[in-house]
Amino acid sequence: MKEVHYQDIVNSVASMCQDANYELGEDVMNAFKNAAKQEVSFMGKEVLNQLIENANIASSDRVPMCQDTGVSVFIVELGQDCHIVGGSLYDAINEGVRNGYEEGYLRYSIVDDPIHRKNTGDNTPSVVHIELVPGDDLVIHMSAKGGGAENMSRLQMLKPSDGLEGIKNFILETVQIAGPNACPPLVVGVGIGGNFEICAYLAKKSLFRPVGERSDQQHVAKLEEEIMNDVNKLGIGPQGMGGSTTALDVKVELAPTHIAALPVAVNLNCHASRHKKAIL
Ligand code: SF4
């Protein structure tokens, strides 16, 4: 049984919160550079080059790449032979978020109650999903998820008879409705199957996969490619200024579902596609 200490989780989470906001991952930077080479619109190309410059300034000056520093979302793979000592995992993650956002001068974006809307003043509580897995590692995936793109995300309980065409239409419609409001170029996360809450979780989880990485299931990889091509024909373009780069990537995750159901969720991520990983 491996022991992981509370304070190590706190410190690791605090670093991830800052690094995610200051340093755009190599996967997203490479996607920007490739898109800038291929973008057909002058304005689209300009925007992509500005996004690259913005990310470089954020990284070198250690300042947030966007004023919206996001909801801190975690997917934790907890090895069943890993023992957390010194406090609860949830408390450690929230303390790490609190420290990271305060010490990093990152904007606090969470309100305590969706009706009264008083800012909690430290960006907590974070959103934490825990998956129990074999082994003794504690793997923490963190995303600073922007509100603009999250707001344009959608879920629909399709009928099985709607088929692949219905799924594609719903995804394209979601991106079309989002337009510039989701801060494109996007990463489009799609969950298909499961039930109401599982398909939403799958859509979120898909966004933690590196940009540019295809599904290891051949038919899913093919679907990701097809949707990506269709999305990029919509003409929304970088920051909605028009062009051929509406999405940097499309990710699809599947789960078994009920014979009478075809749930589909689309979770959009903006160009500030911020995710970090730590293994303890
Ligand atoms: S959605 Fe993303 S790019 Fe847009 S304001 Fe929020 S964090 Fe920034």
What keywords describe this structure?
4-stranded mixed β-sheet; alpha/beta; 2 domains; 280 residues; globular; 25% strand; binds iron/sulfur cluster
SS class:
alpha/beta
Detail the poorly predicted runs. none
Subunit arrangement of the protein? single chain
- N/C terminus separation: 13 Å
Strands of the largest sheet, in order across it? 4-2-5-10
Estimate the strand proportion: 25-35%
The geometry reads as: globular
Number of domains: 2
Query: Number of helical runs?
Result: 8
Helix content: 25-40%
- Computed Rg: 19 Å
- Counted beta strands: 10
Bound ions, cofactors and other small molecules, one mention each: iron/sulfur cluster
The biggest beta sheet reads: 4 strands, mixed
Mean of the pLDDT scores? Answer: 98
| SSE ordering | EHHHEEHEEHEHEHHEEE
Explained architecture:
With 280 residues, this protein is α/β, with parallel strands linked by helices. It has two domains: 2-20 and 65-145, no CATH class; 148-272, no CATH class. It contains eight helices and ten strands. Helix 1 crosses helix 4 (89-103). It is globular and about 50 Å long. Bound molecules: iron/sulfur cluster. Iron/sulfur cluster (SF4) binds next to helix 5.
